[in-house]
Amino acid sequence: MMKSWYWRVAAAFLGVATLYLVAAAPASAGEVNLYSSRQPFLIEPLLDSFTKETGIKVNMVYLKKGMQERLKAEGLNSPADAILTADIGRLHNHAKAGLLQPVTSSVLDTNIPVQYRHPDGLWYGLTVRARVIFVHKERVKPGEVTSYEDLADAKMKGRVCTRSGKHVYNVSLLASIIEAKGKEAAADWARGLKANLARRPQGNDRAQVKAVFEGECDAALGNTYYMGKMAANEKEPVQKKWAAAVRIIFPNQDGRGTHVNISGAGVTKSAKNKENAIRLIEFLSGDFAQKIYAERNFEYPVKAGVPLHPMVASWGEFKADKAFLAKVAEQRITATRIMDQVAFNN
Amino acid sequence: MMKGLHVHGVSHAFDGHPVLDNASLTIPAGELVCLLGPSGSGKSTLLRIAAGLERLQRGRITIDEQVVAEPGTHVPPEDRGIGLMFQDYALFPHLTIVDNVTFGLSRQPRHRARKRAMEMLEQVGMEGHAGKHPHMLSGGQQQRVALARALAPEPRLVLLDEPFSGLDTSMRAKIREDTLSVLKQSGIATLMVTHDPEEAMFMADRIKVLSHDGRILQAGRPADIYYQPVDEYVAMLFGHMNLIHGVVSEGAVDSPMGRIAVDGIDEGRAVKVLIRPEGFVLTNGVDGGVGTPVEVISTHLLGHSSIVRLRVREGKNMGAEFQVRVPGSFDAAEKGRLSARIDAHHAFVYPEG
Amino acid sequence: MTSMVARTAGAAWRRTDWRSWANGWTLGTMAIALAVMVPVIAVITLAFNPSDDIWRHLASTVLPMYIGTTLQLMVGVGIGTFMIGVGSAWLVTMCRFPGRRVFEWALLLPMAVPAYVIAYVYTDILEYAGPLQKGLREIFGWTGKSQYWFPEIRSLGGAVSMMTLVLYPYVYMLSRAAFLEQSVCVLEASRVLGRGPWRSFFSVALPLARPAIVIGVSLVLMETLNDFGTVDFFAVNTFTLGIFDVWLNMNNVAGAAQLASLLLLFVVALIFLERFSRRKQRFHHTTTKYKALPGYRLAGTIGALSFAACFIPVLLGFLLPSGVLAAYAVTYFEDAANPAVLAHAANSVMLSSLAAVLAVAVAIFMAYGVRIKGGKVLKAVARLASMGYAVPGSVLAVGVIVSLASLDNAVDGFFRETFGISTGLLFSGTIAAVTFGYLVRFLALSYGTVEASLSKVTPNMEGAARCLGHGPFSTMRRVHVPLIKSSVLTAAILVFVDCMKELPMTVILRPFNFQTLATFVHQYASDEQLGEASLAALAIVGTGILPVLFLSMAITRSRPGHGRQGEVS
User: Per the CB < 8 Å rule, is B92 touching C1?
Assistant: First the structure.
């Protein structure tokens, strides 16, 4: 009797398992398949609207590490039609690895300014975020910090916080300095910044503002949208206090401008649903989606004429570093090596 | 043909290394045959081949006139009707004692199997431990259970692999006796392998002595093996021997204690003479010139016998030493002058080389 | 004494009448082992792709630090898990003190808590801006960091503590099983020879349990070596972090694969050591006599200290983090009570059980394959098949992707050429791929456990069963299955719990629109908003607890004499 019980459970398990394995067959027409390195909770509302508007279902895998390797290994049979990334570096690497295909779309050309898209249409920027400096409202006097270079100045000794030097946002910033001032100057800057740190690099950008609020340091590097998310955080009201303790400084306004990065998208070489993929990117660059990006995520829309979130608008206009992003991305490897040389994370 | 086990010309090799060479034996029902040999002599292999645990390579094996193994035929062990008792007993640790014994009775109805198992346990005196697990028993108790388990299915053949080697000496004699009586009662053909000559002598109706390379050197009753060993190796099985080198002349060989008659060896050949320690006759005084005068070097009382070391006192062999076993205790001082001579039953002559 | 003698007969049994179908089994074993090795081989192959030379740069900059930090981390976690694991195992097995019965199982609970979750929870509490330091500042009127000293949680020490807290149960579990198996007679002999209970522990019990402890600690060290989540969060620059830096920031997969292969080489040395010590274990069963365990009665101060020694790991490794998660879950209930969590939980449980069943089935198949037909080559292949455990998850996932996609594309190419049909990707991006990934990664756990338990069934027991009229299958059912059952269950549970927590491979290998609890928790945790995923995190812990409790029961029952009575059907 025991035996038949065992067998029944085993048979049921096998049955369910088989169904389970079979049910996971990859999706096909009327759909668009997305590999995304942007967190689902950021883009799901947008994708839902897209589906509502077009009837095209969006399937997504959220992955950061290994996206490029997966696409490459799957080759032309890959089910992915488009990729979505939070950083120019990834787009650039995918393009360089020959995983993306050129797209021509008058809609995209109209919506997206030329500096935010690939010359051949391999990738398109969708939102812009600026890497700014958050300083404590009182402990940092007006005019004391106006540039990235100021953070590396001896006057800021023991007063600066940042996340890991190896995080893409910081590597990207350093790459922009290499592009602007050369390797030597960039290494000096990284060394100077390292010498001024109040604590070992750690946490994300939000955690840096928290540290400024708590008095652990006076100034921190961070992306603009983190500020918006904290200042408007109803779920965790304490974050509003963190945000209220700092003011935003757009660095290098008298010089080359503030370093910006883009989130963006590209159509894969293997795309089976190429039309749908293009429609999705067009949708994301359109007024409706750009407005959501601006309002919900506090990002700067790429499309001209889309209103900023009032809070973002209140930070004022800024001059962005005009260096071509793809060229900046080329300096990533050098930037990473400099971070090693100055032992930034030790 | 009669019932029992027949092994015909079995040869076996592991990875090209021969362990059995043309071994044959017959065990009629009710008889206990013992394979006696050093470890590595293939005796366990023969047993495993008989059990069907090892596949036969050459030869033929029949049990009760049924061929169970020959090239091309292999009756699996579970269909051979054998009882095998392992050196480590191999009791199932997850089963109670009674369940261990019932294990081989699965073809019988449960209640009958259980009754039979309890009978067997009773027979080996273990009925009081039926509900225990094997790890709670002593080695001797485990041995009894293993025997009961092997016999419970009423096998056609019982195989015993070094059945007493795991037991300490104090218990061994008793358990040996009990085992023998249980086996004799059952009237089943039994094949036992051991490296212990004394054990073989005690248990066996007939003994087969194996060489280290798997040949059967000698087969016979225990007395044959002891009194007529075919060669030096078989003779040496029973322990220390006194060794003399000599040459055959006029049908005999000279020894420090007189001439020893030689049969069937050419005149003038160099020979070895082996004399068991118990093969000496000691007498007081000068013994009418038959014995050789000897002196005692040392004595050791072993219990029911003593080991005495003797040295030849005079003559051309003066100084030659012997080890002698005598019954009971031995007081050298009390004995005075001693003479010794050799009992021909315990002296064996083999050609040199 | 008896089991030592048994080994002589064992060698012969391997060459027995199974031969006729042993060849098929051997081939099968070989095939499965090779299939499981393919992803690891793929990683090693990647290392040989042409790439920028990273070594000169790394060697002159960060490599010494990576290695130094990694070794410190390993030593720290090794010592930490050893002390807590062995110490608490000894206390609950051999001594009697208040709460012992509860600790027997409670000490296993931290196993169910993923390292990345506990790291997050403690950072929240202990960092400068956390409630603890804030409270201290308010009480003492400090205004800045320079006015007092407080241990930095995001540090090497922090990483050591976090990993120790969630990994010590491996050492606890294995050393407890070893202590339970030890014959008390040996300990009594030691005491008669004039050694007190504590000295007996160090001079007899510990050396006897050494192989089990070594296995436990080496499992822990492998987990430590390939951890990315915790060290990344704490910004502790380990070798594994270096692998990811080369891979992602320098966009150099080949370089990363080279580093990973080096790590693998190091781990192979570890595995070799572990196996070497296990080889001796067989001789360690000293007697077949067992008595009730001594139960040294600990009262008063020592009793209280023992209580504390067992309570603190449970408190810090389980109670506190689950409490914090529960508090989050209450605070953020509206956000956290996402109905999708149920679906994710179903995915997690299904996938983990599938992987557990598969890993155990494969382990049993391979262990028998090796047993039936020994052979150095087969043994070596079977051992190498468990190397996936030593490769960081994301890197291994790339290995899996590369191998499966190559297979898929080859099949597709063949069908296109021959029949003009495209089969597309059959395995890549399916649940089967994730399951295979889990198998590659966790086979080490199940194979090690099953293999060890199979060695307890002596070849003579098989022989005895056969001679008593049971065929090969009846023998397997009535002798093997009951004897290895609890170990097989243990293996399944270990794999299950690890799969529930597994993150990096799931993320990379999964199909579209597929979430497990771990990936769901990760997407919030990576943005430092664990609150919203607190219920899911709690669900991982909760789902892990049940089998862990079961495991504890199985271990207690494994002691000879604790077996159920009269289990014959």
Answer: no
Cβ count within 10 A of residue B240: 11
Enclosing H/E stretch for A34:
strand A31-36
Measure the CA–CA gap between C480 and C364, rounded to whole angstroms: 11
Number of cross-chain residue pairs from B and C with Cβ atoms under 8 Å apart? 135
pLDDT-above-70 percentage for chain B: 97
**CA-based nearest distance B7→chain C, Å:** 18
Site from A166, A216, A341 to mutate, C interface, most C CB atoms within 10 angstroms: A166
Which pLDDT score, from 0 to 100, does residue A49 have?
92
pLDDT score of A6:
65
Suggest the residue from B39, B82, B94 to mutate for an interface test with chain C (most C CBs closer than 10 A). B94
Does some domain include residue A332? yes
**Which residue type occupies C35?**
A
Could you tell me which residue, C46 or B16, shows the higher pLDDT?
Answer: C46
Closest alpha carbon to C386 in C431, C446, C437, C453 = C446
Work out the pLDDT band at C426, boundaries 50, 70, 90.
confident
Q: Which helix (H) or strand (E) segment is A223 a member of?
A: strand A219-223
Closest CA to A208 of A192, A189, A230: A230
Is the reported ipTM for this assembly greater than 0.90?
Answer: no
Q: Could you tell me which of C218, C280, C276 has the C-alpha nearest to residue C85?
A: C218
Q: Residue C188: its pLDDT value, please?
A: 61
> What's the pLDDT band for B318 if we cut at 50, 70, 90?
confident
Question: Which residue in C5, C13, C17 is closest to B88 by CB distance?
Answer: C5
- Indicate if the pLDDT at residue A21 is higher than 50: yes
Instruction: Please tell me whether residues C359 and C503 are part of one structural domain.
Output: yes
Q: Do C512 and A61 touch (CB under 8 A)?
A: yes
Domain count, chain A: 2
User: Looking at the structure, do residues A293 and A147 belong to the same domain, yes or no?
Assistant: no
A17 to C350: CB separation less than 8 angstroms, yes or no: yes
Reported as a single tens digit per residue, the pLDDT across C443-495 is 988 888 888 778 777 888 888 898 888 888 888 888 888 888 877 888 888 89
| Residue range of the domain that includes C515 | 22-40+332-560
Per-residue pLDDT of B274-298, as tens digits, reads 999 988 888 876 556 677 888 888 8
* A20 located within any domain: no
Q: Kindly list the structural domains of chain B, giving each domain's residue range(s) and its CATH number in brackets, ordered by start.
A: 4-236 (3.40.50.300), 242-351 (2.40.50.140)
Three-state DSSP string of chain B: CCCEEEEEEEEEEECCEEEEEEEEEEEECCCEEEEECCCCCCHHHHHHHHHCCCCCCEEEEEECCEEEEECCEECCHHHCCEEEECCCCCCCCCCCHHHHHHHHHCCCCHHHHHHHHHHHHHHCCCHHHCCCCHHHCCHHHHHHHHHHHHHCCCCCEEEEECCCCCCCHHHHHHHHHHHHHHHHHHCCEEEEEECCHHHHHHHCCEEEEECCCCCEEEEECHHHHHHCCCCHHHHHCCCCCEEEEEEEECCEEEECCEEEECCCCCCCCEEEEEECCCCEEEEECCHHHCCEEEEEEEEEECCCEEEEEEEECCCCCCCCEEEEEEECCCCHHHHCCEEEEECHHHEEEEECC
Question: By the 8 A CB rule, do A58 and A47 touch?
Answer: yes
From chain C, pick out residues whose CB is under 8 angstroms from the CB of A200. 152, 154-155, 235
Calculate the average pLDDT of chain A.
Answer: 89
| C527, two tokens | 């943005």
Q: Are residues A225 and A324 in the same domain?
A: yes
Compute CA B23 distance to the chain's CA centroid, rounded to the nearest angstrom: 17
The predicted structure's pLDDT at residue C8: 34
pLDDT of residue A125: 94
Q: Count CB atoms within 10 A of the CB of residue A292.
A: 18
Query: What is the span of the domain harbouring residue A295?
Result: 28-128+261-308
